[in-house]
């Protein structure tokens, strides 16, 4: 009999810093190594790149993987299923402790590589393995990894299925059922249903929005909202600025298209805009969706130069797409609001937030400050031009029905979220403590 | 000098029972005569059709037009700008007191006629005048009425412009700036801008959603949401029921199209579904958008017969579109939830609410009851598949800029809403009490 | 070794219908048998007294004790720890199935007896055993029951400690740490600390308000609020009506005292006011706190007669304390609001709600209706003159520190509440699934 | 005929920066000159003491009194009705522009003097006149000022009545009807009723909490809450820290008493604690309520020394009462939370917030940060041990009935608050625009 254990390392008591270890006898596969940024945010003057992992663990910013010492076995692979920081942000702090390859899809791997290059404290020597959605990789003789295409809010997301002699474990964290996506293919439902028929021993699944009614709308609806607002502004000679997630390439693509349709030149501005664009440039199939001559700038001088040009040629000719949707100090929108750039806001100019406020009081305060400053200049503000990238209640219900796993382990959430997932599972006949399990950071469950 | 007065009769202290009188010297034009249904709802056993207007006035259900006695002048016309009950619902109770024609667009007039036919207490003999959007009608030698196409959440909505020797008064209650509508043409912005250039003395404008950030998305976004949910349900052999506003013909059209696309026969069920369908049948340009053989039933026996057939042929072949989105007692969805029809809900069946809860505690309680009962049967619920029909903050900002009226009079809202409108107007340079005016039911303002 | 099991029968998935079975080898002790009224409320025309238990179980209104068949052993006692309906309301429907005495404090037993007398469907023959706080009762040779005085929002509440050869189990559902109570002694903290030192195997504890910050204030604060409002109303010649929980005798006492202090004659009106007063009359130590000649009426005719007298003698001379704080149909306040009694409300009369809205949409709607009707008559309304009877977060933290139980089993709450309790326990070093346990209705846990 | 005008200078579009000018023919009396701190808070590195008034006006931080140039007449007096910064905080920036005495109660005047001493930009030479509650002062031959005792959340608050040939104007901003106050006498209701009988032309009244149901409880209830929490903490050997408003002397007195009762030595720590204590020391009748040997420290070194001593002697022997209830950067609680003082928090220590979060997102974020840091150290937190100092809806209803002014002018609030006040006034028969007036900053109304 194979002995399989699931170890909740991070992301089971909170949203953020995801990390799960799956143990098959003495072989361990780690899923994700994320960071939790709001733990950092309440402290000032923290420079993550230079910090030691133990300090970050103590702050609750990265998973406490010291518990791995108590797990008998060797780590054979580190798998990252998409490129958001709460899934890859601790790789540069933790991966060097394990003699194991890092496996990810090409886009995700680009982002991991960037991070490893900017790390100042540790030197990471792990092998990097690029694996496409739909492909498989043999981790050991007995463990095969399969990547299955899903949709979320960053390109190239996958579920990771571990096929073992003891059964298949599906790691499903994060996703949405987008049937009309803007980038990449829709979720590979055919394969998921097939997996379900073949039998899945355990599914580890995100639970961030399980309390939200219904299904999460397609990113296509977000595109419509973006088009509706940008092309619908009657007041065509005012300045318009859009701010959104730098990693949300599909969204940025929609904004770029809306810009073109309304006769404005789109420009991507901000350090992280530039960083993600570097990754996009490596992905031909994404790159080709954007205009050849798209202007992107990440360095402060260059940005100010472009903003100067925009002002002199006429704001109504451009559509800057900038960082700062959470009012982050130092982001472009914040600097513009503070009057620290050549782009002076005037009465009637528009700022469009294609993002929601990530619900922490620090973000609320930052957003309030930037919105107040903009309003004092007479700027018109459009908020929440956005659709989530996370599955809602009925999406989860559908996924559970498709996969029909023997065990369900909700992850990526606090107890209130994973508890809600358990209640949903109960509606499908699962029983808490028997086949749906509430793990807490630091706990291991043995699957019978 | 012409002496112009605006009399706030109803809808200035509340949402609902809209009625405004515009006095040009001794000639009076009444805009809208609506009912406020939540005033009725807290009382049991009220049968409106048989009630006298004074009792309804005392309950706060219809405008208190007794104040009209103190206005010197004669009513020359009663104008209804769209067919919702909060704009036409008191016509059958109040119009007979005035010797004046009722003027409305064709679809609106159909609904008024229906209402007059079902009135049991009063006999209404006023002349009925159908006027199309884009057309004008001479009320007196000195007063010309013009209808301007707008969009809202019922077909055939208009703004009413009264051209007088003293200037133009624009009645703009209700609307949204929908640039990609499903039915009818978009808002006639060209004419609105022209009006603005010609000069508008006063604009009376709704204020229900002026506190909502940004712009109200197009009904096209609602269509996407409907499509996304209905065609995106993986579980194709379960029953699906949609409930929405019977008067929201554009929405119903989207649901009907989604039904067809997912291979289900759409069926409209419910007394008010049938009533609005009667009006639709008279409008060829709307009727032709629907399938020739669309099934519609309003009478209880017939509905139960159809539901029986659906069950016997297979729920997965049909898409009932039913009344009851607010959980109203007696509506089809409520009856289904109570197990009072041949359509038995089973585990995994879906109910889609293409509507929000109209925010009164009574509705919240009714919705809670129906949702709880459905969930107890294992039904999966999708809520808020909806986009509003009312302008949001930035839409109002754009309208004010287009029209640039000398005076602004926010209407259709409580003081908190009309007050918010005044604050918005202040951002455009208006001054409270000078050129933006907060009226209360029963007050008249003289325009200088 | 003794084999001890805790069976979650009801109240582990919801607030209401509490029932826990504690099994010591083959001997079973049942703690509480409650009803959940909001499950009944969404259905109309339900007459509980005549309903069969299986129907009530199916509606989710009473605990599903059919699972008891699968528990090996015999029920030796049914213990009720206080007299609220969510703890005793199912006794008349379920107790007859067990050949075991019902044990409760004197006040609680009065209420149980009333209920058994009004039951129409079943005949209950169980022996009734009155046990005072501070006393013990030998259930079997090996099981001793001890009642420990606590405070809540009804007189004569206790924790039940079961002393067995396998250790002590403490049933702590519901309570608050009131150090300045109005009725009875404060919580017997001395005994609780002693218990903690002796060792407690398991504590079963309520979790309704564990999410509320800090500590729940003393009922003494509620008394101050009541005094402040009633004696502070400057307008001394208007009518004042207070509505509060009929079972909250301490609160009623404070209102009665405030009435006297402001020179008004207190009168208790309403069916359930009368019913609880019947129980009070049997408790000499409570009875003597009230005026000798207190007027109480439960029967409709009598109530109307008293209200008539009040109106004729002058409203300012009386203080009616009535049922209807949730706007319940048929309650006295509701009837007064509907104008169905001789007590006509006039402009400037006051209604004081010494209660919060129990948070279900049905209550919100009922309260909205009654408040709206009262406001339409010009009545001034004072709400939330109230302090909760349930422990808050820090009270629970203190209790856990006092008792220091080996195992903690949060009860009386949905998973979100019991989950929050578990998180609190984690702050004290407990580990989910090891020594703090989330049970769901129908589950048994074996204690190691 | 006397010509009376009321000029809304500040506090009519917002909470904060109160300033109203009352013009009697050519004589002007200014009521309050306040600052609005949240306008400053969104900017970093602002040092108010060194800023020019025009810059502060531009930021919206102090009233825009440049409009006074357009008012014909001379300022004869500047009256401050209590010592909160939103009523006196702009005196040092604006008073020097007027050749007029500053009139205030003794405690208020102490605070004004402190402020004038710390001003770095302007030199203020106005005469300072101390006037007690119950006394009058002749401003001109025709204008007499009367101070009437009220209660709020700082000592020595008054209403200001201006008796003029044209009638009496009552300035009632801020107050609560506290019938059981901790400091000073209750509101002088006898005099208010008398004023009402004599006739009041206009009442200018605060509206911050007019939307809150019922009446604001007495400060006595806050004292009970403080006692309940502090003396009720079972865990007597842990550290306890209380944080509250430095200016709320009555509250501090209650905390000091609770400290004594629980055998702990109270210590007041923080710059503003020290500053207000300086003012208290000048008021014998307040000073004598506190222990002779009360320890107070405002200077950093001294504070750290005291904290060191507390730690070495035993935290359980002291009760530090500190600044930082809003999590303000630099305040003592914030420094303790950051580990920047000798007072190390340990597991089980308590922090009691005897304050609510003043509702701006910046405060919410600061409070979140400090609470999170404290919780990470295992500190137990008690929040909202507080009762407001502002009148609620029914208090306002009572005041209006007492005074029965010909005109009502709600102030100190945004339009949503002053609008709510107007709706309340309507319930008493006032008519918007006729005898209840909504002014906006910069507007003058002439009283007929």
Largest sheet of chain A: 7 strands, mixed
The helicity of chain A comes to 25-40%
Helix-strand category of chain A: alpha/beta
Give the largest chain-chain interface (CB within 8 Å).
Answer: A-B, 33 and 33 residues
Low-confidence stretches of chain A: none
What's the CATH H-level homologous superfamily of the largest domain in chain A? Ribonuclease Z/Hydroxyacylglutathione hydrolase-like
Molecular structure report:
Chains A, B, C, D: Its cofactor is Zn(2+). Chains A, B, C, D: GO terms for molecular function: 5'-3' RNA exonuclease activity; RNA binding; zinc ion binding. Chains A, B, C, D: Keywords: Cytoplasm, Exonuclease, Hydrolase, Metal-binding, Nuclease, RNA-binding, Zinc. The structure is a homotetramer of 448-residue chains. The first copy, chain A, is built from 15 helices and 19 strands. By secondary structure, the first copy, chain A, is α/β, with parallel strands linked by helices. A seven-stranded mixed β-sheet of chain A has the order 6-5-4-3-2-1-19. In chain A, helix 7 runs parallel beside helix 8. Chain A is globular and about 75 Å long. In chain A, 58% of the residues are buried. The A-B interface holds A 177, 179-180, 189, 213-215, 217-218, 220-221, 224-225, 228-229, 231-235, 378, 380-385, 394, 397-398, 401-402, 427 and B 177, 179-180, 189, 213-215, 217-218, 220-221, 224-225, 228-229, 231-235, 378, 380-385, 394, 397-398, 401-402, 427.
Features:
homotetramer, 448 residues, alpha/beta, Metallo-beta-lactamase, Chain A, Rossmann fold, 2 domains, 7-stranded mixed β-sheet, 6-stranded mixed β-sheet, 15 helices, 22% strand, globular
